[in-house]
Specification:
alpha+beta, 6-stranded parallel sheet, 6-stranded antiparallel sheet, 9 helices, 26 strands, about 25% strand, globular, disordered C terminus
Length: about 475
């Protein structure tokens, strides 16, 4: 059994230009759980979970109630106003906190009537004037909760187009929940500056035992006028920041859901800033390179531990280095492989995987790698220090070919997290790995396939080494039966 699909992962979809059909949604379904279109009902026939939104105070309540009545077993959340602190010209609903408070009873009543969890208005970072002033998001929330202290909000909500993953992590996991720095809400100066927002959070925690969680319903790297500036926001930059943002969003228990902006844009994957999930905004389009990564990358499923004999997709790491040492996730380049993604370990980069073994023993860790130079490699168990180091060795060069490299590890019985570090001076590509016993009944039976159809797994033709137990030894392909 592989990782479970993330319930958090969603996508923004512009159904005014292209309805989301089941055919398109099916190409995202293995990794994306939900979508929204800034409206009260979907347009296309996608079976993907839909989250309705009251875009502003003039939302169509009749249509919303009709949709909810027809889908009472499907919906759990109601999204409130979209970017009320932004002007119409940039896509905001342009509502002062007073205007939002005046319209709020209708939103809250719909949520109450259908038993929906209510997501607060989605705020962005802006210099726009709404009403008679610029409303930075925390000030907008503070005034809103002053006007509606019992708003019945279950989740906070933000949008972030900040370029770097660290900024997204600050908004979603740090600002509202700590007082470590002057930029955090509970720092004394900010408690004084935003007393009504702080009170809402504290009252919520008193009532429930925890702070309200967060939705991030639009995010990507889109700040052309801030470092690293427009020309440096390339496809590679967008993907690398996206994977790190998703990692932080998935790892944070404070984040309830997030949606990538966006699934479809008129210019398709070639349009700056290269964030389209699909190659083109057409009914038959395939996923873009970025879309393949977003859909298939790890769900960071902490409940999944891999047993000996199970193939671990390299993409399904549970943790990884960030910043300059972050792994680069891209579509798999191995010819004929069914594995969707590969991982490039940069120098000093690591990925971590959860395994569980039945007995203390020596185990074989097989890495399916592609490297151009020999380099240092380390494996740690649970912690990066001398006590946790299991192995320090040299990964051989595979001369730019995909090959298996087998390593021996001594593991105790039970659950472990294996941290795999590239300590060499050159990057290494890996698309899968596997742990197997070297002794006893757990030792795999390797048998060459000789039916002229390549190599087979349990009577089914297989197409990739290391996939579902297929391995390479001494230049020959074998299969675990």
């Amino acid at each position: 059994m592989a990782q479970q699909r993330s319930a958090k992962r969603g996508v923004c979809w512009d159904e005014k230009t292209q309805p989301l059909t089941d055919a398109l949604a099916g190409k995202m379904a293995s990794g994306v759980s939900w979508f929204y279109n800034w409206g009260v009902a979907p347009v296309g026939d996608a079976s993907l979970q839909f989250l309705p939104m009251c875009w502003n105070g003039s939302f169509d309540e009749t249509q919303l109630r009709q949709y909810l009545t027809q889908h009472q077993d499907e919906d759990r959340y109601l999204l409130a106003f979209n970017e009320p602190n932004l002007s119409w010209t940039v896509g905001g609903s342009q509502m002062t906190p007073q205007q939002a408070a005046d319209a709020w009873p209708r939103v809250e009543q719909v949520a109450r009537d259908f038993g929906l969890e209510l997501v607060a208005p989605a705020l962005n970072f802006t210099g726009d004037v709404v009403g008679d002033r610029i409303w930075e998001p925390f000030a907008w929330y503070d005034e809103f909760f002053r006007l509606v202290p019992d708003a019945g909000v279950d989740y906070l909500c933000f949008h972030s187009y900040m370029n770097y993953f660290s900024a997204v992590n600050w908004v979603a996991s740090e600002y509202f929940y700590t007082d470590r720095e002057e930029s955090d809400l509970f720092y004394p100066a900010n408690r004084t500056k935003y007393p009504h927002l702080v009170k809402y959070l504290e009252d919520y925690k008193t009532a429930t035992g925890h702070f309200p969680r967060m939705f991030l319903t639009e995010f990507c790297s889109y700040q052309a006028n801030e470092y690293p500036y427009r020309s440096a926001i390339t496809l590679d930059f967008q993907i690398d920041q996206m994977t790190q943002k998703v990692q932080k969003l998935e790892q944070s228990d404070l984040v309830a859901g997030y949606a990538w902006f966006m699934g479809n844009i008129s210019g398709g994957a070639a349009a700056w800033p290269y964030m389209s999930i699909f190659q083109a905004n057409t009914p038959a389009s395939d996923l873009s390179v970025l879309g393949q990564v977003y859909v298939h990358m790890s769900s960071f499923d902490r409940s999944k531990y891999y047993a000996p004999g199970e193939v671990i997709m390299a993409k399904d790491y549970i943790d990884a280095s960030t910043d300059e040492q972050a792994p680069h996730i891209r579509p798999n380049t191995e010819p004929g492989s069914d594995i969707p993604l590969q991982v490039e370990w940069p120098t000093s980069g690591f990925t971590a995987y959860q395994v569980e073994v039945p007995a203390a023993d020596t185990y074989q860790l097989t890495l399916h790698v592609n490297s151009t130079a020999a380099g240092g490699f380390r494996v740690y168990r649970n912690t990066v220090n001398s006590a946790g180091r299991l192995l320090s060795t040299t990964l051989p060069s595979t001369s730019g070919l995909w090959q298996d490299v087998a390593l021996q590890l001594q593991l105790p019985a039970g659950q472990s997290t294996l941290l795999l570090y590239n300590m060499g001076s050159s990057p290494v590509l890996v698309n899968c790995l596997q742990l197997s016993s070297t002794t006893g009944a757990l030792a795999p039976a390797l048998q060459p396939a000789s039916d002229g159809r390549g190599y087979r797994l349990g009577g089914v033709a297989a197409s990739a080494s290391c996939l579902r137990g297929v391995v390479i030894r001494g230049g020959k392909k074998y299969v675990i039966r």
